[in-house]
Amino acid sequence: MFDLSKKTLPNTVEVSGKVYLINTDFQFFITFSRMLKEKHSLEDYDFMYAGKVPYNRQNGLNALIAFAFPERELPQKEEVSPDSTILLDYEKDGPYIYAAFRHYYGMDLLDGQSLHWYKFTALLEGLKDTKLNDIIQIRSYKPGKNDSAEYKASMNRLKRMWYIEPPLTEEEQKQLEEFEMLAKGKKRL
Length: 189
Hints:
Structural class: mainly alpha
């Protein structure tokens, strides 16, 4: 959690009653976020630790997820049906994130200096009037009753252009793998 009453940001997670030092640089967490969408073994997340790795890696992964995506009090969550629209992808939107930080804050994210994940996410959320904000606004567009048909058509076209395909569910991934095996002739019906 980003606590301005403290002089430093957290750099540890607690796993099974023990404290573990972690790598807090934003680039580690971007890689971590990408890996969470893919299929990986628990050992593959060991790079997130700056020293000793927890024995219980599942609890360690859970602690890393809680660190990466802490619950926030504000804004309060709206009680609406879940929308599968992905508004931001650190890899696909990488050039726009880089340009936004460079333009808005004068920061070069690739200059080799460390930037804590919590600082990165706070600065990312504070961006305004950048191409990245335009893209996010397009992705989150929902037609209003006062929008003209022409505007709705234009926004829906842009929304399709900037759409990010959600990752496959485990079931979809399994079906795809079975189909690929069938296509290669390795599996009989």
